Amino acid sequence: MRFSIVHAADLHLDSPLTGLERYDGAPVAELRAATRRALENLVQLCLHEDAKLLLLAGDLYDGDWRDYSTGLFFAAQMARLRETGTRVVWIRGNHDAQSKITRHLTLGEHCVELGSKRPESCRIDPLQVAVHGQGFATPAVTEDLTERYPAPDSGVLNIGLLHTALGGRNGHANYAPCDVRALSARGYDYWALGHVHQREVVDTAAGVPTVVFPGNLQARHVREGGAKGASVIEVSDGAIVKVEHRALDVVRFAQLRVDVGPASSTYDVVELARGALHQALEQADGRLLCARVLLVGRSKAHAELLRDPERARNEVKSRASELDVGNVWVESVRIATELPVDLSELSLRDDAAGQLVRSLRALQDEPMAHAELLAELARIGGSLPPEVGLSALGIDLEDPESTRELIADVARSILPRIVGEP
Q: CA-CA to 116 of 20 to 30 Å: which in 217, 262, 270, 356?
């Protein structure tokens, strides 16, 4: 017997995506509808693959819904799967752990939620598959849930369904921590994980992925770049023979780091940024592209960019819109270029430029000087009204990266005026 299983997680259906209004020209309607369109694509994938089972590894929603429309939309999509006999097994993650409305939503007998008090199993005899899992009873689960997962059923394909950070992943709280070796030792054929938004094949056996994060179904901001979607698991004669990723997102996010070292002018910079956006748009394969552009590198255009940064930002956005009208949105253009000079050599000079470089390096490298800077910034910030204070400027004194970037900005802004244009 040969059939397909689809594994998805982190749908975050109707995620609010707050703060979009502050971005000029943001495609607000398209972004807010993206999670619904991605769910439609997931269901269509199941239908196209004639999948017999859909696994959802948590975070279907973002907490309680504002109204029933979110749940009704999800129920309507699941009803499409009932018509083709596709079974659905799902668990709650940290975001939908306390969703009260979910408990009163009827999805049909083909949909099974595994409980959150203890591990439960769902045996699907026609497929000879057993799914074992436990959802989150609270938004923050800090114990290893897998310790109580049952032994594998004999003579069937065993799948573990789990929402976890698997010991920690960048940008994700370490919920339901566990060890991949312990997962493998449990004896299941496949672990369908959720919570981590970046796709990752954690472990393989006999050349086939056995522990997989499929990533979220649809990215929600620019830090979640790349293709998003679900995994298609092919089963033949009771064994997994192939696991493939399928892109299902409708909006593609990208952070584009553009090296403008070869540029001599703002015009050159804009052309380099346009090339990077064009490449990202081609990789988006017809989807709406939302991009953040970071201009970096030692460039002769550095001083010109700093004299009129808004001109550079607006020209990059203007050229982006020419690539594919309505299908490219540049969220922001950030300038982090440097003078085309060697700062180490500059620091040896016995003039104002050399003294400035040495002072800035001391602020970054010497703990006492750095602490004095933070204290002075805190004093100044405390005397300012909130609307023009440090937080309004994006400066977080508790974040080392924020203060390092502040010092780097000083160097980028002042040095060109002291050294002069090369």
A: 217
Element (H, E) at 322: helix 309-323
Backbone angles phi, psi at 117, to 5 degrees: -85, -30
pTM (two decimals): 0.79
pLDDT of residue 422: 47
The pLDDT tens digits of the residues spanning 386-399 come to: 665 666 556 677 77
Q: Which residue has the tokens 């002069």?
A: 420
Region class of 317: left (phi > 0), else alpha (psi between -120 and 50), else beta: alpha
Query: Distance (Å, rounded) from C-alpha 373 to C-alpha 361?
Result: 12
What DSSP state is assigned to residue 28? H
Report the SS3 class of residue 398: coil
Q: How far is the CA of 117 from the CAs of 209, 278, 378, in angstroms?
A: 29, 50, 47
Which stretch of DSSP H or E encloses residue 277?
A: helix 266-283
pLDDT of residue 95: 82
Residue 14 has pLDDT above 80, yes or no: yes
pLDDT tens digits, 80-103: 999 899 999 999 988 887 665 566
Determine which helix (DSSP H) or strand (DSSP E) holds 205, and give its type and residue range: strand 200-205
What is the rounded CA–CA span in Å between residue 352 and residue 2?
74
Q: What is the pLDDT of residues 131-176, one digit of tens each?
A: 999 999 888 888 889 999 999 999 999 999 999 988 766 667 788 8
CA distance linking residue 224 with residue 196, whole number of Å: 11
Burial (Cβ within 10 Å: 0-12, 13-18, ≥19) of residue 413: exposed
Scanning 49-142, the segments in alpha helix (DSSP H) are 69-82
Inter-residue contact 331 to 299 (CB < 8 Å)? no
Whether residue 182 contacts residue 146, with contact meaning beta carbons closer than 8 Å, is answered with yes
Distance CA 231, CA 246 (A): 6
> Could you give phi then psi for residue 373, rounded to 5 degrees?
-60, -45
Q: What is the pLDDT of residue 139?
A: 84
- Name the strands in the sheet holding 328-338, side by side, starting at the edge strand that comes first in the sequence: 251-259, 288-298, 328-338
Please tell me what DSSP assigns to residue 37.
Answer: H
